[in-house]
Amino acid sequence: MQTSQSLFSRAKIHIPGGVNSPVRAFKAVGGTPPFITKADGPYIFDADNKRYIDYVQSWGPMVLGHNHPSIRQAVIDSAENGLSFGAPTELEVQMAEKVSELVPSMEMLRMVNSGTEATMSAIRLARGFTNRDKILKFEGCYHGHADALLVKAGSGALTFGVPSSPGIPADFAKHTLTMEYNNLESVDQAFAEYPEDIACIIVEPVAGNMNCIPPVDGFLQGLRDLCDQYGAVLIFDEVMTGFRVALGGAQQKYAIKPDLTCLGKVIGGGMPVGAFGGRTEIMEMLAPLGPVYQAGTLSGNPVAMAAGLASLEQIQQQGLYQKLTKNTATLAEGFKALAQKHGIPMSVNYAGSMFGLFFTDIEKVTNYQQAINCNTEQFNLFYHGMLEHGVYMAPASYEAGFMSAAHTDEVIQQTLDIADKVLANVAQA
Ligand code: PMP
């Protein structure tokens, strides 16, 4: 038996599903997930010593590729001074200054330990600031697993939300309105129905949890305008897009200024970190300055701050984002051209260094219903073919892919050569 297989069997005894986050279990695509032992640049290596070109990149944070020497050294240096103090440090000040410099809408910010904490706290703050209860989110966007955010649309467009997981009281979900992504009209209607009740809109400015779906022209600006008109707080969840679709995140790429921003992943350089921040007037509502409570024993952890700062330092290199964007386009368009060559309908989306492949004949996928109606059978065949040949992609058709600065032209070409073979097989299946 292979090592990953035996580890997976052992894992399932004491860990639900054998994993500490559900998507890792390969439920959508079937089979055994490779257990990873190490990673370097564009590659990850599994317990059977197989090397893969990695387009998951820890679900986004490794913009520079895995195990970057400066980040590794920053972690080692910081760890020599102790792992956690539960008291303020200069590193936290440097981090706040750096994030604020790179994402100017974040005039003040607070560090947390995950994206889930960032969005949960930002929502509480928006509610506290506006003194309103309802929140508006979009179908197919994921904002972590806080109760109010694990909510799907009710049966009619403007019905109360219903929990998307057991364990969430219907009463918690009823304040969450879920609208269609890229459909401004539905948001307009929600505000018309509840002009004084909606505390905030939370949105992934490029959706990365229903594969990759960029905003259509005018969508983000429309959200900004509606928030201004009705006095609601606009929250950009840039946990995935922050420092990824552009140095200043999606808000820089699309030139829209949100009131609050949630960050995660990238600012930890691979360590468990998140942050939320925005307009001073709103952030001053937070304890200890104001009445909205939020806290964290390990928040602003020195080792995580050191890793994050080293990462942010490196991604400021001249030309890095142009290169990432160009390479992502080459890869995504390359996949599409190969699919065409083999007569397989495929549509691709990409923004900055995020990309998504859709096995569909829809020319441009713009919302959740289109994304989930793609050919999952073809995707799964493609997925396992790529994996077998040493390319590790997100193990579900509704997840985005990520390019890193360590993926060279050669690595990208190797990926496309493998895809050529795999798509030929998919076409024959
Ligand atoms: N928001 C977005 C946009 C995300 O993609 C994720 C995680 N993939 C989260 C929030 C939650 O972050 P975490 O898993 O760190 O809690």
Automatic annotation (TrEMBL):
From the UniProt record, give the pathway where this protein acts. Answer: Porphyrin-containing compound metabolism; protoporphyrin-IX biosynthesis; 5-aminolevulinate from L-glutamyl-tRNA(Glu): step 2/2
Q: What is its EC number?
A: 5.4.3.8
Which residues get modified to N6-(pyridoxal phosphate)lysine? 265
Q: Chief subcellular site?
A: cytoplasm
What class does this enzyme belong to in the EC scheme?
isomerase
SUPFAM superfamilies tied to this protein: PLP-dependent transferases
Q: Does the record carry Isomerase as a key word?
A: yes
The cofactor named in the record is: pyridoxal 5'-phosphate
Entry GO MF terms: glutamate-1-semialdehyde 2,1-aminomutase activity
Q: Which family does it belong to?
A: Belongs to the class-III pyridoxal-phosphate-dependent aminotransferase family. HemL subfamily.
Q: How does it assemble?
A: Homodimer.
This protein's name: Glutamate-1-semialdehyde 2,1-aminomutase
